[in-house]
Write a structure and sequence with these properties.
alpha+beta, seven-stranded mixed beta sheet, Fructose-1,6-Bisphosphatase, Chain A, domain 1, about 290 residues, D-Maltodextrin-Binding Protein, domain 2, five-stranded mixed beta sheet, about 25% strand, 16 strands, 8 helices
Length: about 290
Amino acid sequence: MLQATKLRCVGVDLATALRSAVKEVLQYLRGSSVRTDVLGSSYFGDVTRVFDRVAEELIVSSLIKRLGRKLLIVSEEMGVKAVGEPEYIAVIDPVDGSTNYEAGIPWSSVSIAIAPYNDKAVIKDVQAAIVAEVFRDRVYEFSEESGVKVNGLRPSRPSKPLEVLLGYFETPEAYSIIPGYWGVRGGRVALRSLGCVSLDIIYVALGRAEGFADLRAKIRNVDVAASIAIAEELGAKSILCNGVPASEVTIKNLVKIDCLLVGFNEYYLGRLVKAFKLRRSLSAHSQ
């Protein structure tokens, strides 16, 4: 009983720490002093702007203040950095959808996940996660104690999602799954490429879309750790195109995800998997 009580207290502390960090960074990102100058490149070679770096520094500073110097930081901009003797892994994407943010397109987020430190830690080990929309007062949270909440309330899921497929379809390779998907489902579905993967995944879980697909090999684990933890708790299912569940993706290091499929539930994920296999089969026959 004492051990269970201790775990509940730790969970509350983690959730509170995430809310505090998000509050600080949103105050900055919504303020008038944001700069968009290019500072250099991120760990994976993407452009890093001032607001990316400042947002990351605010999150890290806030987490250290509330959880102590016992973190392994795994972040889009910073890479991997130990702060003291790690007890937790903090997986951070300070501004997901940074191109949207810079352009004033209201589809970007702050994304943070926390898991106990472990050499083999993966997404399913996440104990607390938060994804907050930058342009709207909409915060999606997960903790082991409270499950998923949206702005403090438990969300409801429809029995059937909207006929929308989210993802990235701007290249022939990325689009190649679509004809097969239409065939598998027996009809077309609206396609939307919105530019913020964490929000896309959560919207699938909430039933605003039936699935998400990205075959570009550009997603990183920091982009999706928090959103997959939230989405899977709600009942969504996700898988890499090599058959490995997305919940098994490492969070101890920065890694790219070659191909990610997310479905509203097992049935809708199955449609996407069939479409991917059909695409691969057609590609092999054409060579």
